[in-house]
């Protein structure tokens, strides 16, 4: 996966839209996963698993707890894929 922030943003938004059944137009960079997008704890686990698979990254439980907004996720994926 390339480290182009726009590509990463689009990929993350697509994954979130798919896993949370939310329209892409309702997903903003500052949207919180649980409060704004309505995810529950099971949804967040599935979202992290999808991110790991689609983005070819590893996310620890501690790291997953920090992924509260779309921007957090995009930044995290960009950092993980930068190497």
Task: Quickly describe the structure.
The protein is an all-alpha fold and 83 residues long. It has helices at 5-20, 41-55, 61-66, 70-81.
Keywords:
83 residues, mainly alpha, globular, Non-ribosomal Peptide Synthetase Peptidyl Carrier Protein, Chain A, 59% helix
Secondary structure tally: strands:
0
Q: Given the structure, what is the number of helices?
A: 4
Summarize the helix and strand pattern as letters: HHHH
Q: How would you characterize the largest beta sheet?
A: none
Strand content range: under 5%
Rounded to the nearest angstrom, the radius of gyration is 11 Å
Structure description:
The chain has 83 residues and is mostly helical. The chain has one domain: ACP-like (Non-ribosomal Peptide Synthetase Peptidyl Carrier Protein, Chain A). It contains four helices and no strands. It has helices at 5-20, 41-55, 61-66, 70-81. The mean pLDDT is 95.
Helix-strand layout with pairing:
Elements: H1 5-20, H2 41-55, H3 61-66, H4 70-81
Helix pairs in contact: 1-2, 1-4
